[in-house]
Amino acid sequence: MNQAEKPDLSSLTISRDQRKSDKPRSKAWRWLSWTIILAAIVVGYFLLKNNVAPALQVETATVSLLSGTDASAALVASGYVVAARKAEVASKGTGRLVALNFEEGDNVARGQVIAQLDNDDIKATLEMYRAAVLKAQADSLNSGRTYERNKKLFASGSITEDVLEQSEAAFLYSMAAVAEAQAAVAKAEVDVENTYIRAPFDGTVLTKNADVGEIVAPFASSASSKGSVVTLADMSSLEVEADVSESNIQKVKEGQRCEIILDAYPDTRYPAHVKKIVPTADRSRATVMTKVSFDQKDDRVLPEMSARINFFPDDSQPSSGQRATAIVVPNDAITSRDDKTIVFRVDNGMTNAIEVAIGRKLGSQTEIKSGLNVGDTVILNPPGKLVSGQKVANSK
Hints:
The strands form 6 sheets. The chain has a 6-stranded antiparallel beta barrel. Strands 2-17-22-21 form a 4-stranded antiparallel sheet. Strand 14 (269-282) and strand 15 (287-294) form a beta hairpin. The protein folds into 4 domains: 56-68 and 325-394, conserved putative lor/sdh protein from methanococcus maripaludis s2 fold (Beta Barrel), CATH 2.40.420.20; 74-85 and 236-315, Efflux pump adaptor protein, beta barrel domain (Elongation Factor Tu (Ef-tu), domain 3, Beta Barrel); 86-114 and 198-233, CATH 2.40.50.100; 119-194, Helix Hairpins (Orthogonal Bundle). It has 6 helices and 24 strands. By secondary structure, the protein is α+β, with helices and mostly antiparallel strands. It has helices at residues 16-21, 27-52, 69-72, 120-156, 161-193, 318-323, and strands at 56-62, 64-67, 75-83, 86-89, 95-100, 107-108, 113-117, 196-198, 203-208, 215-216, 230-233, 238-245, 257-262, 269-282, 287-294, 306-311, 325-330, 334-337, 340-347, 350-355, 357-362, 365-370, 377-380, 392-394.
């Protein structure tokens, strides 16, 4: 083979510059790529977490508007209707109940017999004591006549002075025996009367605490005995006992005008006034009991009903009270964050911590002076770790 026919291999030579351009990318570019990918993942997580994460279940309420006397009240407290005149009617004696003349809801007059205990044995004892009186009177009559005869005989000198003194002593002893027998009769009569359980005042039977056939004893001295027969209350003495917090007691004074709203009849308002502020506080609840009397009431008012009391300021008039308004939220919606009063509002399913200015505490609600509007949805009892921007859902 000659030299002209040899293949040209020069075209297969790789230049040094071309080899440098074909090298793999540097490590710096590799790390930059991973950094960009991780950053994109993090940004995507924060953008999507609120849509992906489960919603926190919370209880919510709506900001409402109070008007009329509810808004014009200087203070609102809650309490219960009680009877100022109430008694657990019991027996002074012990015995088996043989008659119960009244049921719950019946009206009784003072002195009427509510119930009766078995008293056959006490009546028999009474008759025995009455017989003893007759015997003592007969002995007294006989000794009296003897004494009178001896006085005449002593005057004529027929008997000595000793005999006269003995007859006088026998006569006095018989008189004492008569008095003793009469006292025994009186005691037995009282014992018989104690078996009749009478009403101490005009009232209504609230509860029946014993039934015919049961043993009734004073102070329920036995585990199987009943201490009282019925619970009696004077319905004309009904009033409301309300617990007012120590921090607000200065807003209440005796004679102050107020109104009572029973939970059973929220649309009915009973005019009332403060009857008495009990001069002691409950240290465990930090409250002072206040007694409120009805100015007007009807037959629907019953003992142990729950009630709300609106205490009005002295300068509050019914006409101005009808025009007053107040924005309120439940007390459980108010919390504190960084020494600020906060209410968590729900906006489009997300929490929003709103700083508010609060006013009067109106029972279970608190007045909001600024920060919220009527119709806003707020979270009740917000968890301590709750912050703005969390996804929430109303629990049912």
